[in-house]
Task: structure prediction
Amino acid sequence: MKIWRIAFTLFVAFSLVACEKADPFEETDSGKNTLGFMLNGKKVEYVWQPVMPPAVYMDPVWAREYSNDTLEIYASLESIAALGGHNSIAINLPVKKLTNGAVLVNQADIILSYLAGSEPVEDYTRLYYNSLDVTTSRVSIRTCKPGEVLSGTFEFEGDAEFRDGTTQHCRITNGHFDVKWEKYQNTLMPD
Result:
């Protein structure tokens, strides 16, 4: 019985070491599926959870090319307290403009939602979510290999308007991404 315990402990230790979280602020170009940024000076990083085989899981960061010539970069994030605990971002980019060294100013569709407020309704609480009103954005492409890898940096600014009448200006800086570029395959059956 001791041998099985030792073997299991070694297997778990090896699995956790082999699945270390990559640094999202490191400039890499290998499709590591990382994303991170600074929000008003505070780090926000993608969520990482070690998964032991043979578990099936979805990557916390991915990039998919859709048939409408849009590449969506999506990341599950650590909870952002300043935005009511929001925990995801989507950056939609025009595929035709993605090349090595490209700089896209105000061409990305960035979706960073936030909890705008809540109100009690009978026996539950209704939550109101809005998307950040992005006023300026800049995405710089470092490496672009269509169908393989996309990496680069981003920054943007916008305002979050809350139901209590307050507004919070959000400045996103030092954004980095390094993603595997996948083509979306619609697996639904035709009518």
User: Anything to note?
Assistant: The helical segments are 2-18. The CA atoms of residues 17 and 191 lie 47 Å apart. Residues 22-183 form one domain. The longest strand covers residues 167-183.
